[in-house]
Amino acid sequence: MKHCQVSQSLLINVPPANVWGIINAVEGMEDWYPGLIQSSKTTYSEGGVARVCTMANGGTLNERILLRDTATRTFVYAIDQHPLPAKNVVGTLRVDDFDGHAHVTWSAQFTTEDADHNAMSEMVNAMYRNGLSSLSAFAQT
Length: 141
What we know:
The chain is of the alpha+beta class. The protein has helices at about 15-25, 115-140; strands spanning about 1-10, 35-45, 50-55, 60-70, 75-80, 85-100, 100-110. The chain has one domain (about 1-140): START domain (Alpha-D-Glucose-1,6-Bisphosphate, Chain A, domain 4), CATH 3.30.530. It is about 25% helix and about 50% strand. Strands 1-7-6-5-4-3-2 form a 7-stranded antiparallel sheet. Strand 2 (about 35-45) and strand 3 (about 50-55) form a beta hairpin. The longest helix has 23 residues, at about 115-140. It starts with a strand and ends with a helix. The relative contact order is 0.27.
């Protein structure tokens, strides 16, 4: 198994609080993330907040929300069920203030089989680039 770390960032020309409001909402991710047709808030067995995301291709992601910190505008989640060849997936969305604009960083850590490392890293980086681009367009409307 190989530990992987990916990260993408984008400057969005809207106030950080506006972008944080979109990310922190938990539900409604389908409004801005490409290929997602539904996201719904739920709880997991230990009583914490969770989200179920349904993709247009029929795939489902079950996420546990680990942290939603408004002071630092940080959203951390673990993906417990997904169709990808990765394990121990933890993602982070962080919104920083850059001269009154939102600087958004989307990162993840996960493990894969050694043979899947490069392909998985490239795929997740592409997903995050596309997601940030769509988030930017949505936030600016």
